[in-house]
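Section handout 9: paired folding examples.
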Amino acid sequence: MKLKVQKATLAGIKSLRTLFLQETNFQIRYNACHERGWTDSYRLIIDHHVVGYGSIKGQEIPDRDTVFEFYVIPAYRTYTALLFEELLKVSKATYIECQSNDASLSSLIYEYSENINAQAILFEDHHVTTITHPETQFRLRTDDDPHVEGAGAYVLQHQGRIVATGGIMLHYNIPFADLFMEVNESYRNNGLGSYLLQELKRECYQQGRVPAARCSIHNKASKATLLKAGFKVAGFMLFGTVKG
């Protein structure tokens, strides 16, 4: 058996990545890194047959030091460990970063890296909520609204004042989208964040997308807000250093 890892273009792994996305069927946090040119791609080859791919990104954009996607077609998964070891050797990656809901790569991070820690919590939609907030309107932001740095396309207006903004990010693998929101400090702890997320979820589905979200593992307030809005924990972002 001859095993080889060969650098490839993004187009060269497109069909394999389609299989990966179909099999995982969840939001890929770093999906946009490919299209933005921030990754190196490698084809995994056994006896002249392409059997999978691996992708490397950087902790800083110019670098290529972190394995973050790895896929082997089912018939060749007996050779997963050998292929992964060869990918580490050829790419000279020093880190592994993955989502814990990616069963394949999350098992490899524990085998091939150390000092593993979780940096973010990943959320998926779980149930419909019926949160109400008197005298509060969810609507699109207009040019007449006060400028807010980083504000999304939607706002909550309470008693005539903009009290929160939020949005839907669409640069993730279809059909998934990422929701974000920010509540004015003086209006926090009143359920506005969960109400805004509830309405953003409805709007997201109307756009033909499946809502997802994430927050820092240390942000207890954001986690509570997301859970109250009908999300559930889907996994964690794991990060480890490749063993020497």
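Moving on to protein 2 of 2.
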Amino acid sequence: MIRAYKFLMRPTARQEQALGEMLRDHCSLYNGALQERRDAYRHVSKTSVKYGVQSAQLKDIRAFDPERQGRWSFSSQQATLRRLDKAMQAFFRRVKSGDTPGYPRFRGVNWFGTVEFPKDGDGCRWDSTPHDPVTRVRLQGVGHVKVNQHRSVAGRIKTVSVKGEGRKWFVVLTAEQARPEPLPPTGSVVGIDLGIVGFLADSNGEFITNPRYGRRAAAKIKAAQQALSRFPRRKAKDRTGNHRRAVEKVAALHGKVRRQRLDHAHKAALGLVRMHDFIAHEDLKIRNMVKAPAPKPDLENAGSFLPNGSAAKAGLNRSISDAGWGVFLTILHAKAESAGREVIAVDPRNTSRTCPECGHVSAENRPTQEKFHCQSCGHTAHADTVGALNVLRAGLVRRGANPA
């Protein structure tokens, strides 16, 4: 199996400058390759430029611009071109399937945060020895950068990536390792219901509160963004010191919220995996859930629109994004695979409207957000616990076992 490790790097001032230059030059390569594809399609009889053609041009590009492109790893530049090729393939796949195409866009350096080295030892080298207290990663064009390795890396290193987040730099490793020993069985099964008021409710009646990290930091983020908006739009190299600090403050606040959500998701998922052999959850289509409502044209007044509840929906969308369901479910599946647990996603329709006692389905069974009261048999319970029970039963049925 493949496992990822992320470590904080401690570059010197000169190495930090080189890392920034590496990121900018790879971003420039990405944008130049995208421009070539656009021009070829528009002006040369809709010709589509493939990865193989652009990869073959790298040798000439490096010879033409040795100061900017020639100093970096050839393999990392190929990885950047593959990144663009994957984006183009995804675009054409969405066009054929009838989805919103989303044509790949040009990237600013702030939106191009990662440089990948496809193979350890080709343009990079992970240098971690058991008796050396200092771990380093060697990067072509940068040098040996100190790394804060807070845990050991098991397995064979496959890829090495450099990632910039604000003023911090990280190295991300992927390692191929043998499948770990599964956790001892507990004999417990559980269904979970994700929510906004409460982050998670399980079929055993347990609850995990929603920390709402985004809402807690909203006032600080708003003030920082307002302070940033007072500066005129400029390229990064032309910004004043105060402008750069304002940008860094906004990035730092968003980064803190992101790390808090990630930490909460890891702890919640780990607790479930350690306690239960089988976990069922709703198969949520989060991307569809956070879509803005379609506008409602006013047929009587041309150019006018009727209220469509967009303000209330925007607040709901923020709450869904703040809960971080997608990140949590991704982590849950990864931890369950490593621990030998089973996780199944089930259809979420009517899970909170179905009575677990008599099976009666009605929207009136849930008179409030928290209360469930069956109109047929009179069963009462917490609505999220009822949803989790129904999710568990559907998961057991899908697995082929008897309902709980």
